Hints:
This protein is α+β, with helices and mostly antiparallel strands. It is built from eleven helices and nine strands. β4 and β5 (40-44) form a beta hairpin. α2 (101-116) packs parallel to α4 (141-155) and α6 packs across α7 (186-197). The radius of gyration is 24 Å and the shape is elongated. It holds the Pfam family HTH_18.
Amino acid sequence: MALFELQSRNLDQEHVAHTHDFHQLILATCGVTELAMEGQGERVTARRGCLIPSSRHHEYQGDGSNRTLVLDVPVAQLATLEKGSEIERLFDKPRFFSVPPALNQLTHALASQLEQCPALQNEIAILLLRALTMYLHDATPEAAEQLGQHCISERLDLARLDAWLDQHLADEIRVEQLAALCALSPGHFHTCFRELTGVTPLAYVQRRRLEHARSLVRHSTLSLGHVAMLVGFRDQGSFSRAYRRYFDISPSSDR
């Protein structure tokens, strides 16, 4: 069951004036929306966000070409969340706020993941609120950037990836599969994975294959051809060449 309602929307040129019984966060990745709250009007853009507390009257009109993240935060549910009181502080008053580059990059990434994996809207919403809470409460761009990196590293759960890899070493493994496990696009997953581990995803898979193969070579009586098949090599020759390059010794000598 969804706790939050998070949508990536295009706000069109229709003028809307209303109130609602939930808090609302508005962040844009592109385009412009004119928004006014209690006599204060500004533009919501990629560099300017908006927090609307529950029951506050506001009016808005988009330019028809914007892309905007709209997050509805149910007031009654905040008490059930870890650090819910900190999130509640975000909405202690209506406000517009500057969006630093690190937060804008995180917004782009999370908007992309929301479109690909709408079922993860709760998790994406919490990551977004945590980043915004740290940025606005600490008022340091460095803090926002550090949290953005931490949020990505949380998505890249290496222990979970390793467990999946160990069950599929005999199969063809594609970057798209690994990215899907982390609810990231392949391109974004590749970039974040390399930043986190220092190697590409496929190089990491190759290393995992060979390290598992070495255990089999040293501690089993399986033929080298059988070992090669179990860890996903097409033949013993390619396995032996890769093994020698990585360990600087042939599998037969290592045995």
